[in-house]
Amino acid sequence: VEFMYRPGNVSRAPPVVAPHQPRLDWQMWFAALAHHSSSPWFTSFVYRLLQGKKDVIRLVQVDESRYPFSAQPPVYIRAQLYKYWFTGSAEGSEGPAPWWRRQRVQEFFPAVSLGDPTLESLLNQHGLKDKTPLKRSADAFLPRLLQSLRRLSRPFSGPTVLWSLYLVAATVCLLRALGRRPRGGAPPARHKGPRRGEPADRGGGEKNGQVRRKEAKEAEEKGEGRARGAADGHSDGLRGTKKKK
Questions:
Q1: Residue ranges under compositional bias (Basic residues) (predicted)?
Q2: Taking the CB of residue 114, how many other CB atoms lie within 10 A of it?
Q3: Which end of the chain is more exposed for a tag (fewer CB within 10 A), N or C?
């Protein structure tokens, strides 16, 4: 069984999947770090492949023609554990140049079939036996929407769907940025107040000029009043000194 993203065929180049995160292939990498009993989901995965579940097969291969048991489920399944390394430029061989070299470590999951006592025992141990499915309304909006999306995305792989969504989002942002730019003509100039010696602008500028002149006149009157008060005080002080003399 060839997976879409995980190493298998030593002559196949590793696919570029970023930013897609393949759920099954990534979890199989973690499962291989310990005994299969530490990953109960793997027992369920083998059980569903023996049953020929379409949704599980699509996690292995989107293109059913590349899955050898698309017409009829396999009778037996087992899993072997291998270690993989990239080949070097000096490692030559006959036929297609291999991308990988691998070494068999041990058997990861024993050969089982439907009704096998070992498989049944593992399913019962982890509580993975088939249960009565929940009854959902056939007219519910969310299930119908998800089914429609699955049907539309079925011919495409995960990376293709993700990159298409990113390109659509980038196109929308670009169009919005272009729509905000002013069309034709010079950009509007910022409003500046009149320079010294220049007449004030009409409208708001004229009103601002009147207010400024009024404020300047009041400031001058206040300054003159202070100067007169200071002069009167000075003269009163002189008179007082004369009287004392």
A1: 180-194
A2: 14
A3: C
| Single pTM value for the model | 0.61
- Write the single-letter amino acid at 82: Y
3-state secondary structure the chain: CCCCCCCCCCCCCCCCCCCCCCHHHHHHHHHCCCCHHHCHHHHHHHHHHHHCCHHHHHHHCCCHHHCCCCCCCCCCEEEEEEEEEECCCCCCCCCCCCCEEEEEEEEEEEEECCCCHHHHHHHHHHCCCCCCCCCCCCCCHHHHHHHHHHHHHCCCCHHHHHHHHHHHHHHHHHHHHHHHCCCCCCCCCCCCCCCCCCCCCCCHHHHHHHHHHHHHHHHHHHHHHHHHHHHHHHHHHHHHHHHHC
Q: Among 20-24, 104-108, 214-218, name the most confident range.
A: 104-108
Q: How far apart are CA 79 and CA 165, in angstroms?
A: 35
CB 85 within 8 A of CB 114: no
Alpha carbon 39 to its chain centroid, in Å, reads 28
Question: What are residue 104's DSSP bridge partners?
Answer: 82
Give residue-wise pLDDT tens across range 183-202: 665 555 565 555 665 555 55
CA nearest to 201, candidates 218, 189, 215: 189
Residues 6+ positions from 10 with CB-CB distance below 8 Å: 98, 99, 100, 101, 102
Spatial distance between the Cα atoms of 122 and 115, rounded to a whole number of angstroms: 12
- Residue 133 corresponds to which tokens in the numbers above? 């499915």
